[in-house]
User: Fold these one by one.
Assistant:
Number 1:
Amino acid sequence: MHAASRDALDQTREALKSALAADPAGGATGAKVGQELFQVVDVLEDNRSLRVAVADTSAPVEARQDLVRGVFGWKVDQTTLDLLLAAVSRDWSNPRELRAGLILLGREALLRSAEQQGQLQTVEDELFRLGRIVAGDAEFEQALADKTAPADAKRALLAQVLYGKVTAVTEALASQAVARPAGMPADDFMEISRQAAELRGRAVAVVTSAEPLTEQQTDDLRGRLASIYGRELAIHNDVDPALLGGAVVRVGDEIIDGSVAGRLDALRRTLR
């Protein structure tokens, strides 16, 4: 995003946080706002002239807001409408970035609903695991990524896999991601998982190990990484038996390779 859009997103995000914090039914309201924002995005994606008009910074703010009221005022709840009015009152760099901002806000609204229900870490973990499962099944991921397939068909395919196995928030977030992919589905699920971690005030450490980490190993590693990075990190554990032992830790672009396979590779390089 350009700087203007980042500022617009930050300002609108504050409006979302304030609205949900002031609402005694914040969890239910957050879920509804999230779903309704995705419905708004659907309308904007299907109507280019409307998408351009609501992001037109040369038009008066009142005109943009009146347009939003006319199109969406009877379709969404007041909390969602107020958030939309706040969004279009800001100066977004272009319509595409307004659309992207509404998607991020929709995701955050759903994540905050999970937070209100004490499920935010569960949703974060479920999305991470879903990303790894999809990444490990090329045929399934290609079916979800197929841009020629109807969005409803991809949602139905995903629902068959998720039904009864994840929280409602995880299913809603995953469903919207396959309907409007930003990249490959596995990457999109992982990105939303990172957004959940950030909402908890944590960066993500992806730890790949030969076997699943025990609870004690996870706690020990979390403490060591906190001492290295000076803050708490969310631990996402991926399993790869090819590592033989040890673990590979990725935090952002930084990789710490303490696996047996990594040490053997390093040894081979020194012997060449």
Note: The first strand starts at residue 203 and ends at 209.
Number 2:
Amino acid sequence: MTRVRVAGFTLSLDGYGAGPDQDINNPLGIGGMELHQWLVATRTFQRTLFGKDGGTTGVDDDFAARSFRNVGAWILGRNMFGPIRGDWPDDTWKGWWGDNPPYHVPVFVLTHYARAPIEMAGGTTFHFITGGFREALDRAREAAGGKDVRIGGGPGTIRQYLREGLIDELHIAISPVLLGRGEPLFEGIDLRALGYACVESVASEKATHVVLRRPSPMNT
């Protein structure tokens, strides 16, 4: 059965999923890269993003590996694809991750501006969805072929799906970093009222990994 989940999403201690002033030079906002110290050194990250051997093992790598397991499609907000706002000026920008993005499955990008799909190396195809987050989810579920749909972010995109009760599970990595300002993840969201409970909490040196889940799968 297809689950809709957030996995490996990192928050600061003060609740921000990205720092302030995001732009092409600071895609995660000022200070945002500090959030992901738990992830970048892991064997999973090094292999998935750079195709390299080596990297750390242990708790952080276990959670990183789990985040990619059984994923058949992704959904991203537009800023997770690129920094461009408004209409697409041209077709030169093909994402933050180079010619071989780490997804390797269909990716559905929420946007108000239509664009033809982009086929990338390694099995990633970006589809640009102008019909809203429910259309993106319907198409991602179909493309996933029974595997999971992973909501990659950013925070605003995750909040849309949370408000509508469309996310089955969240793995949040809480990084021991203070950003002060930025984009909050849970602003205006009552997770308890939505039925979520913490089912797992594991700490490493660089993050506390928390898994939130509803008591039973959603029939949406």
Note: The CA atoms of residues 108 and 139 lie 8 Å apart.
